[in-house]
Amino acid sequence: EVQLLQSGGGFVQPGGSLRLSCAASGFKFSAHAMSWVRQAPGKGLEWVAAISDSGTRTDYADSVKGRFSIFRDNSKNTLFLQMDSLRAEDTAIYYCVLRIQSWGQGTQVSVSS
Amino acid sequence: EIVMTQSPLSAPVTLGQPASFSCTSSQSLVNSDGNTYLSWLHQRPGQPPRLLIYKISNRFSGVPGRFIGSGAGTDFTLKISKVEAEDVGVYYCMQTTQFPHTFGQGTKLEIK
Q1: B40 to chain A: nearest residue by CA?
Q2: CA distance A91 to chain B (A)
Q3: Cα separation of A99 and A97, whole Å?
Q4: Mean of the per-residue pLDDT values for chain B?
Q5: What is the distance between the alpha carbons of residues A13 and A48, in angstroms, rounded to a whole number?
Q6: Under 8 Å CB-to-CB from B46, ≥6 apart: which residues?
Q7: Is residue B85 packed enough to be buried (19+ CB in 10 Å), middle (13-18) or exposed (0-12)?
Q8: Cis before residue B100, ω within 30 degrees of 0?
Q9: pLDDT per residue as tens digits for the range B12-50
Q10: Cβ–Cβ of A60/B100 closer than 8 Å?
């Protein structure tokens, strides 16, 4: 059974940093691209970033480009999202996603002064 | 960026009756490999989204047969043949043909 166990969310002031983690199990992690998707309070879904199976290719939404970094450790079956220069508009639930077919439980990120 | 537009934004439906949701993309979703990467997801309040349909019309594992996806190019439809109480929530279309991947704004299904 595919499991995506997320951690690392929390409360941070504008300009601060957070790192999200997603521990994967139940499938061959190193063989699959992964993504992060977020959902602001009361809003729809927004794709944030994606990374290829090997980690050599990454893509980002314009809204986070230059501030967020997606990376992975295939030896530890873990996906990461490093979020720097956080803004109030980054406040959202962040989901770790395997090929849009499996979603983590979500982790809350709140950015406020 | 491909813009996904869904309609209606709200769909009140009687139990046992059909429901239909529309999704239009600002450009063709046909990929260079010949596939069209248009998916439908369902989200209940307080839960992560769940994949229903991928590549226009393929039901994901465990999805009931009452969910039917169709369309081509830029126009796509999700139909529920007979709405059940568990179908309430928001339905999103999503394209993964081209980066950045994009979602429609969602259609909220509620029971009359």
Answers
A1: A100
A2: 16
A3: 6
A4: 97
A5: 20
A6: none
A7: exposed
A8: yes
A9: 999 999 999 999 999 999 999 999 999 999 999 999 999
A10: yes
